[in-house]
Design brief:
Elements (H helix, E strand, L loop, with lengths): L39 H4 L1 H5 L3
Length: 52
């Protein structure tokens, strides 16, 4: 198994690779758990770098 091979899940779309970003903080999110404007700059580089 290579990290760059697609990962098929039981539900939802297949991930293009096996790399994922773990939650880094929960103190900047909105009260309902959605992404806030404060978190967006920190999450943006991961998809551009190829994280699934």
């Amino acid at each position: 198994m290579n990290l760059d091979t697609p990962l098929r899940l039981r539900r939802g779309p297949a991930l293009p690779n096996r790399l994922a970003l773990a939650p880094l903080t929960n103190t900047q999110s909105n009260p309902d758990g959605t992404l806030s404007e404060l978190e967006l700059p920190g999450c943006s580089p991961a998809p551009r770098a190829g994280s699934g």
